[in-house]
Amino acid sequence: MGIMTRVHELVSSNINATLDKAENPEKLVRLLLRDMEETLGEVKQACAETMASQKRTRRHLTEEQRQAERWHNRARLALEQHREDLAREALLERRGHMQRIEELERDLTQFDDLVDQYQSDIIAIEEKIVQARKRQQELAHARSEADRRRAVRHQRGPRAPQASFVRFEVFDQRLERLGRESDAVACPAKRSLREEFEELEVQEAIDLELAALREAVHNPVNTDSPIE
Q1: Helix segments in 81-189, DSSP class H
Q2: Residues 40, 173: contact at Cβ < 8 Å?
């Protein structure tokens, strides 16, 4: 069972109803508190790890954006120096950085959503713990009152047989790590027909970018227009 499912079941549970049905509510509430505190620790740890991945992703995204802008400027410089061959290579480099930017932006969105969910779960679990502790105090007070009344009457009733308490499923502690980072590039042994056409499409896109840059370089009036 995943951590998100376990947290959902915990948050949606009715502690008072569960304890009312238990033969030994004091023992059960201790078990519930132990499991809730363990789960709270797991969620906080998962949130911290996700926030670390979120921070790394933002740092990588900023670097990729810087590199994309750098290669765009290099392509422009190459055209100004009448080196269209270098401009083409620069735009190819920029294209690779732009693809990585899209991937990092998707990852960052997922990390943002996950951190928000973890923080919401932490608040909900802490509220459940407060509720369980309050009920624990009420149960302890009720037991003390019963003991006091028995002492006043000088009576000892038979000890109630110990019934099996309601089993609360112990939460496992495994968390699937998010945020894989891979920089390896696969090199196919043989290029397929589809790959040949994909390369032609890329070259066509580069030609269009070169044409736009060439127009910007030779016509300063249009230099302020953004280049996609």
Answers
A1: 84-153
A2: no
Among 20-29, 41-50, 151-160, 171-180, the minimum mean pLDDT is found in 171-180
Q: Are 202 and 93 in contact, with CB atoms under 8 Å apart?
A: no
Distances (CA, A) of 69 to 61, 79, 83: 12, 16, 19
Does 222 map to a domain?
Answer: no
Per-residue HEC secondary structure of 48-72 comes to HHHHHHHHHHHHHHHHHHHHHHHHH
> For tokens 């765009």, what's the residue?
72
Q: Output the pLDDT for position 2.
A: 60
CA count, 13 A, side-chain hemisphere, 187: 0
Q: Is the predicted pLDDT of residue 49 greater than 90, yes or no?
A: yes
- Helix (H/G/I), strand (E/B), else coil: 206: helix
10 Å Cβ neighbour count for 144? 10
Domain boundaries, position 27? 3-154+178-185
228 within domain boundaries: no
Instruction: Give the pLDDT confidence of 151-209 residue by residue, as tens digits.
Output: 777 655 554 444 333 333 433 333 344 344 434 334 444 667 778 878 888 888 888 88
Six-digit token string for 154 = 């000088």
| 8 Å CB contact between 128 and 33 | no
